[in-house]
Amino acid sequence: MGWATALKKTARAGLTVERARLEPLLALRGACGVAVVIGLLLALATPSLAVSSAFGAFASGIVTFQRSWRPRPLLALGVAAGLGVSTFIGYLAAAHHALFVVLLAAWTLLSGFAWALGPVSGFVATQTIAVMLVTVTLPSSVAGAAEHAALIVFGGVVQAALILLFPIRPWGRQRDVLADALAAEADYARRLRHDPVAPFDPQPLMEAREAAVLTPRQARTRPRQLGGPRGVAERIRPVLASLADPVLGAPAEGPERDQVRDLLAAAATVLDAVARAIRWGKPVRLPPEAVATLQEAESGWRLTGPARRSALRLAALLGDAVEASDEPVRATGPVPEAERRHLLRPTGAGLLPVAWRALRREARWSSPVGRHAVRVAVVSCAAYVLGSALPLGHGYWAPMTSVMVMRPDFAQTFQRGVARFAGTLVGVWAGAGLMALFHPGPWVSAGLAVSTVALQYLLMRTGYIVVSTCVGAYIVFLLGIAGEGWSQTLQDRLALTLLGGALAMVAYALWPTWETPRLRDRLADWLAANGQYALAVLDAYARPADRAARRVREVLLDARAARREWEDAAARAQQEPVRHRGISRKAEREAEAALTTMGRVTMLMEAHLPDRGAEPSAGAGRFAAALREALPPAEAAVRERRVLDWSGPRAALAEWRVREGDEGVPVRASELLVDALQELAQALAPGGRGRRRSSRRP
């Protein structure tokens, strides 16, 4: 799309206010933390100290609303410590203009690289820059700077203490994510009743796994109810798909299909009941009809072959899910050994080598995170110099806007730039209007600031324009505590907000990091990950005695991660004003469908993995060897826009059919796998694509 269309879409997205689930108790607790800090400092110290400490409490409260699975008190303390350090060293350099610019460049560069660790780390690092720019204008001595830094840390300590003293629905986020994953599988079972090859988005299962990664302290206190159902849910999904599939499961029509529909409906009911029990920490309540249907899976069912095996396994897995989620809610215990090896989150000290490896990985010109770090450092310094040179006062507002707006991708940067200016315009006008009409004193200004904070926490997830509006009004009220006139606030902040946002957007336009040219690389990565998943499953058929469930699990997670990276990249590319995509939109959709089908077929094979004592399949071994040989050239062909060659796997499959017949699950699934690979080749063929050979949807 062109620049005009892209800007229109990003502006509309930035100004959108979304409906979101509100959490009033959490918002009230966070606002109380800000109120306690401001009230204590106003009563016992000076307004300037109250303003300084309020920044720490405010930022610590914001971070506790971010999507992180670490304990909320640790998040509050961590961001407060970072804010305190940035404030203190910022003041030490503030007396020397050139030295402060150098410090700002170095700090913003490191904060830009923090995005390599994840969005929460990037957001926290951005907060430290913003507070550094604001609070260095407050102290008047080194001792005063240390005092202000300590008070900022005190604000985080207050927020952490409130979280510990007044816990609101402990483990609530983990419960919601696990319940959402089970509810998504329930919805999947219902859709399979009408569409036997319905697609399934693995995102809820991926989020449930992320939520299951624990710190050592969390591992000692996690409720047992959250420990088992996730693993069962992972095993249920392929069984549901294999039961409903018309090729590897029950026939498309007839009595067996009717019984499969009944079983899928009962499975959906049970999964919904388990999801409700986990979400609210209550025992599982199962409808009698669903229980009766599942009991019939063990006696009286007319299903045969793979469909019967899938039905029996589904009934057993659903029983395991109910039993795992029906544990005493308050009982806690250590993490099982199998999970302790893989699902422990590193401690603060353990994050240092992780951060160092991420920094080294992203320290290159081709990295989006690396380019973002350089871009935000240059823009923040330029905004600071320009803001200080202009005769407006409050020059820090321009660089603060720039660092708060800029993100590693085009869409978010431009969306936040538009939302930031519009929200600041509304918030500053509203705040300044109230200050002009009522001329409130310090205590009333503090009350208005706390009320604005509560509103922001409550509406945090409704859109960045709402957040920007609340921040604009909050800053006006907060600085009103220190006696700063509203007339000085209005025009200065609006002009500097426009300057900072404009610099951020111009910088991205001049030195962009487009996702569009890398789409083929993302597609090749997904093909490679799917290929390793298929090879691990085929190897289990070829050598059942050597089958390692952990290996299949690891490559499945890699395939899911590659799919998510592709989907995120494709979504970002759709919003970029780049005409040369390297791949047409139609080819992109068809290639995505082919790789999704490839993953689905592999999952169906996984649902019927043989026991360790089963007879090895020589045909599966030869087919796996041919696929292993064909994958690296195919990945290179996707990246380099060449023809994909799957003749080797096709020949091995034909030989497999001749030697062992085509009635077994692995043979029929491998045929579908080759069809999906051929569809991928046709979608990406240079100079045009043939008709798709299979009408099966992913």
TrEMBL record:
Family: Belongs to the YccS/YhfK family.
Main location: membrane
Membrane topology: Multi-pass membrane protein
Cell membrane listed as a keyword: yes
TM regions (residue ranges): 34-62, 74-92, 98-117, 124-143, 149-168, 373-397, 417-438, 465-482, 494-511
Family matches, as Pfam families: FUSC_2
Organism per entry: Streptomyces luteosporeus
InterPro entries found in the cross-reference section: Memb_transporter_dom
Subcellular localization: Cell membrane
Integral membrane bound transporter domain sequence ranges: 383-506
The organism's place on the tree of life at top rank: Bacteria
Keywords associated with the record: Cell membrane, Membrane, Transmembrane, Transmembrane helix
Protein's UniProt name: Integral membrane bound transporter domain-containing protein
Cell membrane among keywords: yes
